[in-house]
Amino acid sequence: MTTAATLSIRRFDAGDTDAVVALWQEAFPEYRDATKPQRNPHLSIANKLATQPELFFVAVLGERIVGTVMGGYDGHRGWLYSLAVDASLRRHGIGTRLVAHVEKTLTERGCPKLNLQVLSAKADVRAFYEALGYRTDEVISLGKRLGEVAASAA
Ligand SMILES: CC(C)(COP(=O)(O)OP(=O)(O)OC[C@H]1O[C@@H](n2cnc3c(N)ncnc32)[C@H](O)[C@@H]1OP(=O)(O)O)[C@@H](O)C(=O)NCCC(=O)NCCS
């Protein structure tokens, strides 16, 4: 398989925006859901560019954007978001490479643990993370929307 062998991972650049939005709209159904205006890929990108933009990565095959991942580190825990691989290139190790890239970057910053959330209906994604050594924590996940997003989602 040549795909992962010729793959590179680099920081997101603003010129990647259209390709990343297209990838996310395919990979994340909620980005196509008109009833969820809070899921706005352009806003997600703008917010990340304002907060730890150095932890927003794309996987590139030739000139083509084929994967994305975002990391975050708040000084206590690391988080991983927006992992997506082009549907035509899945099961070639690209997702594994992207997660490993975030793990390495956060380890170098001294981050002791990386957390992530998976929608409970996504058994395949859970299998992916378990294959990479992630295990279910005995916690429940709580969340609350803030600001304008709270009003639009209500
Ligand atoms: C999850 C995702 C990023 C995985 O990317 P990928 O490049 O296909 O993953 P890899 O090829 O590195 O898979 C590594 C291992 O994970 C497991 N795995 C991956 N996809 C799997 C699936 N659909 N079902 C079961 N196990 C899976 C396998 O053990 C696989 O190894 P194998 O192919 O040798 O059997 C990709 O499926 C995706 O983009 N999904 C849609 C977006 C999404 O839901 N992202 C997660 C948000 S939390």
TrEMBL record:
Alphabetical list of PROSITE patterns matching this protein: GNAT
MF terms (GO), sorted A to Z: acyltransferase activity, transferring groups other than amino-acyl groups
Highest taxon of source: Bacteria
All residue ranges annotated as the N-acetyltransferase domain in the record: 7-154
Assigned keywords, A-Z: Acyltransferase, Transferase
NCBIfam families for the chain: PRK03624.1 (NF002959)
Name of the protein: GNAT family acetyltransferase
Organism in which the protein naturally occurs: Paraburkholderia lacunae
Source taxonomy: Bacteria, Pseudomonadati, Pseudomonadota, Betaproteobacteria, Burkholderiales
